[in-house]
Amino acid sequence: MINEPIRVDFSTGELAGEGVEEVCRTLGQLEGLFRDKEAWGVMNAAQLVYRVQMFRPVAEGVVGGLFWGTTFVEPGLVGDEYFMTKGHFHVLRNRSEYYVTTGGEGALILMDEGRRTRFELMRPGSVHYIPSSHAHRVANTGSSVLSFLACWPSDAGHDYESVLEHGFSARLRRVDGSPFLVEEP
Ligand code: PAN
Ligand code: ZN
Questions:
Q1: Which atom of ligand 1 is nearest to the CA of 163?
Q2: Residue 183 lies inside a defined structural domain of this protein
């Protein structure tokens, strides 16, 4: 028997094939994520912020497996803050991950457990190693869709609660037309 593998379109990051799942995140689902609550409140709740395609050949939590995915972040702003992913630590803090940019312009924002935040520029072809114990999120700083591939361990898990509760120590905001990491008060 020959298994048909899934495929990546490297020009868009789009995944196709049996077993590819997809989740969408709209503005309305991202309550509490963005700094400017007033700006968020008057925007269209149905507006897509990002979607994630995933290929999970083993069950969540299996030790020794790997997952594969593509994230597509729409261009946009809430106030002066770029559209971005929720961001998370891995539940197992010693699990790391790779991101590879396929399209658009953006930033990978990383925060270590000492709450030191930094970012790496994402451009087509850029390869990003996310070290263990780092919260990670991606912001689209461009005017087209930002897409990136990801590969992470199947037992990593996603801890969104820590990020929702305490946030990152800095946010990527548009200052005089350019992205700037602004420390939270
Ligand atoms: C990625 C992310 C994806 C969406 O696949 O899950 O970019 O971001 P959030 O999960 O923060 O909503 C990844 O880092 N997996 O571990
Ligand atoms: Zn992750």
A1: 11
A2: no
Q: How many angstroms is it from 133 CA to the middle of ligand 1?
A: 15
Domain-embedded: residue 139: yes
Question: In Å, how far are 6, 86, 111, 126, 137 from 168, measured between CA atoms?
Answer: 34, 10, 7, 23, 9
In a domain, 135, yes or no: yes
For the chain, the domain total comes to 1
What SS3 class is residue 66?
strand
Q: Which residues pair with 81 in a beta bridge?
A: 78, 173
Tokens of 130: 């996310």
Q: What is the pLDDT of residues 17-38, one digit of tens each?
A: 999 999 999 999 999 999 999 9
Range of the domain at 171: 7-178
For residue 81, pLDDT beyond 80: yes
Q: Is residue 184 part of a domain?
A: no
What is the residue with the minimal CA distance to atom 13 of ligand 1? 150
Which CATH number is 160's domain given? 2.60.120.10
